[in-house]
Here is the input.
Amino acid sequence: MSGLLTGRLLAAIHFAAQKHRDQRRKGAEQAPYINHPIEVVEFMWRVGAVREEIPLLAAILHDTVEDTDTTPEEIEQHFGTQVRQVVMEVTDDKSLPKIRRKQLQVEHAPVISRYAKLVKLADKISNLRTMLESPPLGWNESRLAEYILWGEQVVAGLRGVNEGLEQEYDSLLARAKSTFSL
Ligand code: ZN
Here is the structure.
């Protein structure tokens, strides 16, 4: 990996850590939010063997616009137009009701760019792992089951871009299905 790429990845981690600094994950252990984007980029690198800069940067930044005060312009200013585009492709429109946003994720999955599919796939792996190991506080089994089945529908539209990530998702899904008897 070139020194320049390393520097840009570190800059993105630093930027995301600042933006998510006051947020926690929803699980009982209340892990720092930044653990999630770091896990997403780590899966992409190790499990998916992704070495392309744009999706790696977008993975680190993927929840900053959706969940913090970060603007798309800020992403562009620091990391360029292509990273902004990929981040925006995986950002839900929070002005819409949750049920509509979930439906749109299923509809958009097959038509987003390859880079956005890689980010989304690694994101869904991280979220599924969290559902198994540290589920959100207050979620009962049927809510978890509903989440898992919805995630499966989104991932169906993301297939064909990265075999390693898809296999990782499938083995977690099999575990989730047997855990929740789906
Ligand atoms: Zn995410």
User: Anything to note?
Assistant: Residues 3-179 form a domain with the Hypothetical protein af1432 fold (CATH 1.10.3210.10). The chain has one domain: 3-179. The chain has ten helices and no strands.
